[in-house]
Amino acid sequence: MAEAPGIKLLQPAVTPELVASHGITEEEFQKIFDILGRTPNFTELGVFSVMWSEHCSYKSSRHYLKNLPTEGPYVLQGPGENAGVVDIGGGLAVAFKMESHNHPSFIEPYQGAATGVGGILRDIFTMGARPIASLNSLRFGSIDHPRTRYLVSGVVAGIGGYGNCIGVPTVGGECYFDECYNANIVVNAFTLGIVKKKKIFTGIAKGVGNPVMYVGSKTGRDGIHGATMASESFSEEKEQRRPTVQVGDPFTEKLLLEACLELFEQDYIVGIQDMGAAGLTSSSSEMAGRGGSGVELDLSAVPMRENGMTPYEILLSESQERMLLVAKQGCEDKIKKIFDKWDLDAVVVGRVTDDQQFRALWNGDEVARIPISALTKEAPVYQRPVARPTNQDQLQHLDVAAIDEPKDLTAAFKQLLTAPNIASKEWIYRQYDQFVRTNTVVASGADAAVIRVKGTDKGLALTVDGNSRYCYLDPYVGGVLAVAEAARNLACVGARPVGLTDCLNFGSPENPTVMWQFAEVIQGMRDGCVALNVPVVSGNVSFYNETDGVPIHPTPTIGMVGLLEKVARVVTPWFKTAGDVVVMLGRTRDELGGSEYLKSLHGLTRGTPPWIDLKLERAVQSCCLEAIDHEILCSAHDLADGGLAVALAECCIGGPEKPLGVRIETHEMIRGDALLFNESQSRIIVSLKEANLDRLTEIAARHHVPMQAIGTVGGTRFTIQPLLQMTVEELKAIWSNGLTARLK
Amino acid sequence: MRWGVITFPGSCDDQDVVDSLKSDLGQKVKSLWHKDELSGNFDCIVLPGGFSYGDYLRCGAMARFSPIMRGVVRFAERGGLVLGICNGFQILCESGLLPGALVRNAGLQFVCQPVHLRVEETDTPFTGGMKKGHLLQIPVKHGEGCYFADAPTLERLQRNRQILLRYVDAKGKPTAAANPNGSLENIAGICNERRNVFGLMPHPEDACNTLLGSDDGAKIFASIAAAMGEKAKQHG
Asked: Is the ipTM value over 0.85, yes or no?
């Protein structure tokens, strides 16, 4: 039997207990033994444990993810790199991705959320792109849960603390509260960057003898086994995991960002990758894997923040604000000079080899030797058992007749407006710099954020969406709806989708019902993407969002990016002028299942989610886009949580301008609460000048979209005849304070 | 006229000032690096917003020691125009070019929102293009923008009419509700006694184009350009 390297280094013996404590199963350990032809040493065991962790290897999700459509005429880089890249014309491209930082944010909300933002920013600028906009998708437990306020305050401050300091605007997002997140919150961070097509960089290591360079912050003991932690369920002892949460330093990241962008202007490097989860280990082995080469690292050369660090700790540290790059031979000094200007370390820590091995040296001795393919390609892939939950039918059963319709619908509406999921999110987004980089055309509060592309007439629309209640009730339909709503949000501002990134937050994959939810959601997303013609260009899976065996609702978050050829034509959700006609595109069905109304007013998470006809969805979006292209719409707003009444309220009071009233006449033959609050899909409220009504009618007819003029903008009252009415002033006061009052 | 915009490590809005001056106001601008000495002919030096040195110490406390600041102080002493925006305002206070200090917002949170500002004085190069009482809508975005000064300093500011901008409501009233950070007297921007150094918390560079919601910020830059143009003519 071959001997494991590193005999001169004092390392703990590899015992079955040690193996188990690394989250490696007996079968996996046997596989490691077969690959190496020997027992791994302690350092190698650590390397395998992170590279084969769920977080890094996607071992439970890979089988399903391959079904998602990833190609399209504008896709320059699909999944598998640090971020997806899409062509937007004129020699420019956008790189974007979304990532989860759920576990760390629950344990230490400020740093957990901050480093989530830091990590996604690095994923973007490592592609050569300058980050120009961020969004986030947040899920917290019940607003009444004693820990929720602490978590919300910390997460929001952490996102702001990092994003504001590095000078990338946070232009939008979403935030929901549900008791299913009481013990597992969701923090998903999205960033988009812009890059010249000819200057896209990737994480690749090739060219035998090329130096591997380490740039950025020094390495400390923080975050060791962060990736492994993200691959376990929580239990009572989770608080003790605090030391595995990294600490962010946005100032250093700002320097790193500017230094890297300066470096990218030159032709000094072959490839570059962020040291994120599993740090030096994953960045070096993944880069070598993509280049078909090997890599040799001299760990004693790594800049260290602490004394006495071992090779194991150096390889597994998740210290933030570090990048690994492969330089062209002879360019080392020129690279150092750039980083020197920004007061950052840049040191050679290894070289590219041709032996397809991952080798680590410590003071000249080899302490790890593992075939690269074992780390990047041969990680186990599981087709885990799936099982439809036995209570699914019961969940989907909803006897609407047994639900009393509120006698006073105005009072019911007021109650709904104060629900934390409906009320204004201003308390959150006013803590984010939304304007830096001077591109923000439409900021938080609209269906999608819109930024301009400097030097062109174009704009980009960005949205993050996902309704986990729908996914819980019917994961397939929930998957479809998440994609459909994201695309509809883009259509409302006048943008056509160019690609999406996803963040898939689920419970434990070892739980067959969770795996069933996962499979169904992916299938739904796939069908939504195909029908609406949106490729998936990057993504992230976060499993093990469960505590003591109770998983969160299946929570896929869709981050979608759209293009406006003429940003000056952008349309916002808010009513503009008294006298404008209000029109609904699409139709209201007789349904109530899965609605926020049922949840907030009746305490029910029941029924089937709203029905969707993807053909109609596509038609409604095309109709809205064509009307915006012809510049006949004054406003457009998607109907979502809270239905017609809430959407109309947002049109009246959600914008930066003075609130406007509206008078709506309804004639639908369904019960009042369903008419006001149901969440029927494929509906958009638009307003326009009466003179343009005929043109809109013609466009809608051509797209086979049902449309109905339902009222007029103006006055000081908010009226939906004959069901409810109140003053706009009162409406605004209730909606504005709903969340703020609960979080103060 | 010639503008110089300094980049400190951690400056975030430096390029935004450069872009707005160039594309929205057609000005000539040079980017300056904090490690360099200030050299060349400039009419106005801008200290931009951001988080210089991470603001891990008191905001602006490190940046005032950057090599270029020696030249900025001399430039101001010679009568050159210096404009400090947000973090730039904090640096000017730390370096003694402006009185008072900017402390943590009264609400203890970072605040990003458009605010209404009232132009209080117009006999300065920074506000000369506007009328007294003119209202501007410009965003603020800061965690430490609460202006504070001791009573004698405040009294001096008032006597010398150094308060150039105040936070007001949409009707122009300096109410408590219109004050985003708890600043004394709703102060949003002040100048020095000589009226050639101006610091403000709102970000005029974020409001130079109606596509972005407002072009009121351009009025401040345009005032400066006009003042320098006048001066050039007088000397010309």
From this structure: yes
